[in-house]
Amino acid sequence: MSFEHDHSHDAFPDEALPEGSVVDGAELARDIDEAFDFVVVGTGAAGAVAAHTLARAGFSVAMLEEGPWVKTREFGDRVYEAFRRMYRDVGTQVLEGHSYIPLIQGRCVGGSTVMNSAIAHRTPEDVLGQWDADFGLGAHVSASTLEPHFDALERELNAHAVADDVLGENNRIFLDEAAKDGLPARKMHRYERNCRGSGRCVTGCPNGAKQGMNVSYVPWALSLGARLFASCRVERVTIEHGKATGVLAHATGDGARSKGRTVRLRARRGVLVAASTIQTPNVLRRSGLRSRALGEHFSCHPGYGVGGVFDNPVTMSFGATQGAESTHLRKSDRIKLETIGMPPELAAVRIPGIGGELMRRMGTFANVAVWAVVVRSEAEGTVRQGWGGRDRVKLSLTTRDVERTRNGTAILARMMFEAGAREVWPGIFGLPAVLTSIDQVRLIEEAPADSRLFSFITTHLFGAARMGPTPEGSVVGPDFQAHEARGLYVVDSSVFPTNLGVNPQHSIMGMSRLAATRIAEAARRTAAA
Amino acid sequence: MKLTSLETRWAEAALGAIFPGSSDVGLTDIRAMDMRGFLDQVLHAVPTQAAIGLRVAVWIVALAPIFLLGRFATIVGLTQPDRERLVATLVASRSYAVRSLVLILKTIGALLYAGDDAVRARMLVASHAGTMVPLRLGRGRAA
Ligand SMILES: Cc1cc2nc3c(=O)[nH]c(=O)nc-3n(C[C@H](O)[C@H](O)[C@H](O)COP(=O)(O)OP(=O)(O)OC[C@H]3O[C@@H](n4cnc5c(N)ncnc54)[C@H](O)[C@@H]3O)c2cc1C
Ligand code: SF4
Predict the structure, then answer these.
(1) Chain B CB within 8 Å of residue A341 CB
(2) What's the N-to-C CA distance of chain A in angstroms?
(3) Which atom of ligand 2 is nearest to the CA of A198?
(4) 20 to 30 Å CA-CA from A408: which of A42, A129, A306, B44?
(5) What is the pLDDT of residues A338-386, one digit of tens each?
(6) What is the pLDDT at residue A529?
(7) Ligand 1 atom with the shortest distance to the CA of A493
(8) Geometric angle at alpha carbon B113, from A92 and B57, rounded to 5°
(9) pLDDT tens for residues A232-282?
(10) Are A96 and A52 in contact (CB under 8 A)?
């Protein structure tokens, strides 16, 4: 079946939605009890794609999303406002371990795709090879089973290399220097239509250019008859006689009218949980699943940024937020190097100094480039429910993870100096805050491999409801169905047996599309029988 | 959760030490901004654990003169240069907990300070071989 989207209209895709297709939990005046073929929890990369796939297959679908739907016309450029409205816990989540690592997630319609950089990468074949060799998934999840899904996603979301006219200096300097150094690098491939290079992906694309789920698969699913229950937090999946029968949710938001309102959605054919690696395990736990593997094997990609001050303007406020990368060292060193355009507020946190010293450096912001190393870490952690029902995530990076970060940081610092930076800000505690010559890069290489000396951040999350053939070591089977409950599927990256070493959205969407396609086929077969 | 007025004064002194503005650079002083209103908003919005972290950070900075300088004073009782030195010392503390908590203040302050129109406008002015060049924004192609 072909599915054509109309991109010619002037309205953004999150406007002019089918009448009655969206229920806003924050405005709910009564309890709700309705039935659908499938109920999907979460509207991020995984949930939106799954819902769209099922709706396109002709099933009635309900999507539930804990956060509000913040529309394209409401996006501003101030980070605090974005944190408050669209980020989980106002951007204050952390991984707890030997050090505290900020963990950033979206909590709004579209999930983390609303504030991400839209970088598209297929799942590396060596990673799929590992999933086969170590976890026995090859017959179910492989490059060939995923390929048609990746093809379709790339087509529908218009994944392509950043255009020259919106590349911007931060990305250009990186690419030029990589070319000089013989480091294979490329322009990012991103999901966008007419990106204007406003560098504002973190606060939501004001141009509707970035193809986040909020302007793609969510409205597309609605146009196929799906319904969305926004500002509705799923407390648990209801399971009767070993089968998922629906979900119980509560309205969120401050509205007095909606306080305490319940949303009960019954699922005739199945419930798909796609609440993200952090929330999914706890939704499953609240639903009564007791697998020993639940919440285990959590992994991530910690990221670490380096700043460099150049003589000429870099102007991170112009250019694709993240537009250049090198995956050359992914297999050998488990690191990926990339650029990241930072808004003034987030940059100000990392600009070295206090008081007058900080002010002086803030005055150079327009000449600052920021590049980052992203590590395919070896560390595994846990996702549990803490006091007050809060998600509690624990993970301590290994010494080797930190060594790899340090090596990547040194490579980036050297590249910056060679590209003409007059200062590099490594941000490593115990080192000079400002390096002024390439000879000082050895200080980075010699820094102790202690995660407390580095200011990491993480946005790529995996595991914690792992997929595997047997209930002993996994939560779901290769058919994405929970070992403990029929009709309960998990379709986000919590099922990934390992992390990837590349940006995960494409893999998440590919896996979700694969899962939903199979679930739809199985449901059709059952109906026919 | 809300800061008491005493805690708010400490927080304002700490943020004023971190973002004092500079007439040389052309950056406003954070004390000209509505710090109290912003801190109230933040404390209302963030989860309890984060609010507690912020509060502890305020207390650490406020009482640091006693432990670091041996002076029976809070940060409010110090001169501006001493406040800056104090916060810089805390951020460079060998204790991971202390420096991480104090960095929370820098983070919160940055959200307010660099979110200000005038500060943003100044931050986006590039220096080009020693001269200042106002940058053109939105030079991307038309939709
Ligand atoms: C700042 C940032 C930049 C990134 N950049 C990139 C990039 O460029 N490329 C890339 O590949 N990846 C990137 N990522 C990561 C990528 O966005 C995520 O991996 C991906 O969105 C995860 O998909 P998901 O569906 O599992 O979770 P999410 O997209 O986070 O969506 C989960 C949704 O479920 C909702 N939810 C949770 N619990 C409940 C509940 N109980 N009831 C109802 N709803 C619930 C959440 O509110 C959320 O909206 C970035 C992430 C961030 C934060
Ligand atoms: S950089 Fe491109 S995709 Fe990102 S916000 Fe700006 S226009 Fe949108």
Answers:
(1) no
(2) 23
(3) 6
(4) A129
(5) 999 999 999 999 999 999 999 999 999 999 999 999 999 999 999 999 9
(6) 84
(7) 26
(8) 50
(9) 999 999 999 999 999 999 999 776 677 789 999 999 999 999 999 999 999
(10) no
In short, whether A200's Cβ falls inside 6 Å of ligand 2 is yes
Is there a contact between A132 and A142 (Cβ–Cβ < 8 Å)? yes
User: What type of residue sits at position B40?
Assistant: D
Say whether residue B30 is in contact with chain A using an 8 A CB cutoff. Answer: no
Domains and CATH numbers, chain A: 160-192+299-379+398-455 (3.30.410)
Q: DSSP letters along chain B, please?
A: ----HHHHHHHHHHHHHH---BTTTTB--GGGS-HHHHHHHHHHHS-HHHHHHHHHHHHHHHHHIIIII--S--GGGS-HHHHHHHHHHHHT-S-HHHHHHHHHHHHHHHHHHTTSHHHHHHHTEEEETTEEEEPPP--SPP-
Which residues have a Cβ under 8 Å from the Cβ of A128 and sit 6 or more positions away? A138, A141, A142, A143, A146
**Torsion A361-A366-A368-A370 (CA) sign:** positive
Within the 35-64 window of chain B, which residues sit less than 8 Å (CB to CB) from chain A? 41-42, 45-50
Phi, psi dihedral angles at A445 (to 5 degrees): -60, -30
User: Would you say residue B90 has pLDDT above 50?
Assistant: yes
Residue type, A199: G
pLDDT at B136 over 80: no
Distance in Å, CA A350 to ligand 2 centroid: 23
